[in-house]
Amino acid sequence: MSDTSITALPTEESPEVEHEIAGQLRADVRVLSTLLGQILQESGSPGLLEDVERLRHATIRAYRDHSPETFEEATRIADSFSVQRADEVARAFTVYFHLVNLAEEQQRVRGVRDGRAEIEADTDTLPKAFVKLSDEIGEDEAARRFAKLRFHPVFTAHPTEARRRAVSSSIRRLAELLTERDAAATDAAAQRRITRGLLAEIDTLYRTSPIRTTRPRPEDEVRSIMAIFDTTLFETIPNMYRYVDDALQGPASGLRAPVVPAFMRLGTWVGGDRDGNPFVTASVTKKSMAIASDHILRGLEGSADQLARTVTLDSDATPASDTLIRLWLQMAAADEDGASDATVRAPNEPHKQVLTLVARRISATRARHADLGYSDPGELLAELRVVQDSLLQAGAPRQAYGDLQTLIWQVETFGFHLAELEVRQHSAVHARNLEALRRGDEATPETEELLEVFRAIAQLQHRYGPRAAGRYIVSFTQSANDLGAVYELARYSGAEPVLNVIPLFETFEDLRNAPRILEEALTNPDLARSLEQRGGKIEVMLGYSDSSKDVGPLAANLALYQAQAQITQWALDHGFELTLFHGRGGTLGRGGGPTNTAILAQPPHSVDGRFKLTEQGETVFARYGDPTIAMRHIDQVAGATLMAVAPSVEKRNIEAANRYAEISEILSTTSREHFDALVKAPGFAPWFATVTPMEEVGHLQLGSRPARRGLSVESLEDLRAIPWVFAWSQARINLAGWYGLGTALEAVGDIELLQRAYREWPLLQTVVDNVAMSLAKADARIAREYLELGDREDLTELILEEMERTRLWLARTVGEDELLSNRPALQTAVKLRSPYVDALSLLQLRALRALRRDDEEGPDTTDWEHLLLLSVSGVSAALQNTG
User: Fold this and answer.
1) Mapping DSSP to helix (H, G, I), strand (E, B) and coil, where does residue 834 land?
2) What is the DSSP secondary-structure string of 760-809?
């Protein structure tokens, strides 16, 4: 290996951490780093690799030696580059992080496949959770709970995925080559071929601009989600069901009816979320559902066709049931050509004949052939179950519960729509248009578009079934009238869609008022009628992002817990079946962090075997982009969702909440006051826009939705939570994830009490662990460089003092010497990445300084803008969460 090659394992600088890294991961990183070094020599301008290495070594020294001299030397090197050279160096580090992320993902896949994945608890998987729950409440009751299990991820187009699709595709091809490399470890010829392929793909990745030149359209975002479905979810979800059934039934699995229900349902906001996005129209909504339906029907047709090819069971050995024969006669009468062909191809194979016509009917459904196609997924399921029952009667259980059961699971999970398309709109939009309609004003384009949405929902329900659409989420719900307005607007549209109107409580005040608003909503005839039609099933959405931006992360978490407890009690009092919909983001400032641990920290009865959440931006691809990782994620979340109903979990949570109620009040009040003192300081909003790349983030073309709701930088009120979090993370401050916690813990003051609360109170433990992760990715020295761009020493010192205070009190609360000492694997990963992130941050700072100076001489500002955006993409890849 060349002495100048990039490596994630600088052995001469940090030998103390090398032994902590898995050997295969170390090998992968070394290989990919060496190949990148070769590409930089081949494709970069003269001296690029040497300059990359100079900056790399300098930032490593500065990270290990906290003296001002080492940091100044690293800064001097970054500042010495021309803007063109800085651009090349930033691109090299960005590619490096994509490669390291890939290597880490491959290692996680190996760990899951080899059974070496880190197990967090004895209930870390769904099968283990079922066994543990059975021990607590008995197997019959556990089975009843299991049968009602529901995990409902909702994919959104929130713009937090900083990578271009071309970059993601290149990384996926690299992943395939690494997998091939593992499989061909002893084949020298194959290794040479794979190495050539890796070099070519890394070269492509380096030459591909990571910055989008145009903003993606909603239709593009739909197709990005479809890529996840095609490559992962269509097969992974039924594979998950099979894995659980195998674990619970052992050798009997596949010989008798499965005990695992089809417990997953998918939702999507892509093409339906019009809150602040003028590009999502009724036409886009219909196109989005058409694209999704086409994908699922193609998938189901392929599965049915493949199944028909394999069920070659002769009627002598496997006779058809009378019901199957009647079904065949009905299908043959409706599809004479298909029946004639099936009879010729499978003259004595009745099950194959029927399944052949099933595949043809699915094809006809996709082609909208009304006479032959299915009217709804229930009709298809009924026919598949006739085939299954016939196979069982004929003594062929392996065929009945094999691939046929997989197809049944797929239909149960996806229907003909793949994912339910949910509509979201801001309550203020409803209010102003409804008022105009009541006055009889001439309809504006906004009003016409708003009404057209209801017509579109009705059309989608008619074409794809009632499950396809109907959930309508009202952003910033502040009164029962905000919910009733949706039904009144639907009547003005002339359409009659079946609506499930869902309140979204986002601000601190709205969360506190939620039970009162819900109670008032029951007096609205439309809402009461809709609730009765759904059998008392009610859904309430909670906003993590805006509540955190409103009062700070700690107060928001405590307010969300309290709101959940109160809403849950309200639903229990009325006998409603409540589903809480968690609007969580990928970052800690937006409710991110490990999902399974968050579930187990929820108030009693608030989960009750049902968990619904948003999956946003980079988390969609991180959690569902690889089949093995997707299986692991679903397993953990579903296991936690089932285990949340265990008496031991509910008892622990309610006792801890009561025991530490006084501390909770101190933490909430103190952190909120400290947060307010910062964000409500005079001139804070324009200062924030100056010291972070907040404005420039809007140029990244991350998604189709604008970054703000018509905001000026004089106010943060309408700034979306995503750029708020994104900008703080880019500045290496991560303020949205921790600010106020240090002062709040200090206000409690009793270290022994805090340590006991951390051990016994799951909510505090989850918050503290997440904040530690957020702060570990922050850097005080680099943060100061950003903050001083705004020439407000008072605000700069306020933030840096709180950062240090939070680090100190976090360590005291956990009882460790430094952040993440109780999570050594994560601590090591952060330590290894941080010096390399520092290099990108120094380059970003240089660009930001240039753009903030009015008298900048030299290159056109577009060069500095490009460098800044390139560094933003690189830091996003390095930190692996953006918004």
Assistant:
1) helix
2) H-HHHHHHHHHHHHHHHT--HHHHHHHHGGG--HHHHHHHHHHHHHHHHH
Structure-model confidence comparison of residues 172 and 494, the more confident one: 494
b/e map 490-501, b = 16+ CB within 10 Å: bebbebebebbb
pLDDT at 388 over 70: yes
The predicted pLDDT at position 588 comes to: 47
Containing 503, the helix (H) or strand (E) segment is: strand 500-505
Residue 168: half-sphere exposure toward Cβ, Cα within 13 Å: 17
In angstroms, the CA 526 to CA 66 distance is 64
Sequence-distant (≥ 6) Cβ neighbours of residue 239 within 8 angstroms: 627, 631
* pTM (two decimals): 0.89
For 768-771, the CB contacts below 8 A with 24+ separation are 768/741, 768/810, 768/813, 768/814, 769/593, 769/597, 769/823, 770/588, 770/592, 770/593, 770/737, 771/553, 771/554, 771/588, 771/737, 771/738, 771/741, 771/806, 771/810
Query: Is the CB of residue 883 less than 8 Å from the CB of residue 585?
Result: yes
Average pLDDT on 130-155 reads 96
**Tens of pLDDT, residues 649-666:** 999 999 999 999 999 999
pLDDT at 625: 85
Is the predicted pLDDT of residue 820 greater than 50, yes or no? Answer: yes
- Per DSSP, the residues of 654-690 read HHHHHHTHHHHHHHHHHHHHHHHHHHTSTTHHHHHHH
- The tens digit of pLDDT for each residue in 61-100 reads 999 988 999 999 999 999 999 999 999 999 999 999 989 8
* pLDDT exceeds 50 at position 295: yes
User: What are the Cα distances from residue 442, in Å, to 433, 436, 437, 438, 445?
Assistant: 11, 8, 8, 11, 10
Tell me the β-bridge partners of 815: none
Spatial separation of the C-alpha atoms in residues 613 and 603, rounded to whole Å: 16
User: What is the average per-residue pLDDT within 760-778?
Assistant: 91
Name the average pLDDT for the chain: 88
Per the CB < 8 A criterion, the answer to whether 585 and 125 are in contact is no
CA distance 253 to 397: 10
Q: CA-CA distance, 562 to 569, in Å (whole number)?
A: 11
Question: From CA 483, how far away is CA 510, in angstroms rounded?
Answer: 14
Task: List pLDDT tens digits, range 625-643.
Answer: 889 999 999 999 999 999 9
Residue 582: name the closest of 622, 618, 548, 611 by CA.
611
Say if residues 784 and 792 touch (Cβ distance below 8 Å): no
- Strand bridging mode 537-543 / 267-268: unpaired
What is the structure's pLDDT at 286?
Answer: 94
Pairwise CA distance, residues 624 & 613, whole Å: 14
Q: CA 123 to CA 174: how far, in whole Å?
A: 34
Q: Map residue 578 onto helix, strand or coil.
A: strand
Whether 57 shows a pLDDT value over 60: the answer reads: yes
What is the crossing angle of helices 553-574 and 508-521, to 10°? 10
Backbone angles phi, psi at 822, to 5 degrees: -85, 0
Q: Mapping DSSP to helix (H, G, I), strand (E, B) and coil, where does residue 876 land?
A: helix
- Domains of the chain, by residue range, sit at 15-122+165-212, 657-823
**DSSP symbols for 2-71:** -TTS--S--TTT-HHHHTTS-HHHHHHHHHHHHHHHHHHHHHSPTTHHHHHHHHHHHHHHHHH---HHHH
Query: Do the Cβ atoms of 815 and 839 come closer than 8 Å?
Result: no
Beta bridge partners of 273: 424
* pLDDT band of 403, cuts 50, 70, 90: very high
Query: H helices within 311-349, ranges in order?
Result: 322-334, 336-345
Find out whether 372 and 396 touch, Cβ atoms under 8 Å. no
User: Would you state the structure tokens that stand for residue 115, as one six-digit string?
Assistant: 């059974």
What residues act catalytically?
158, 549
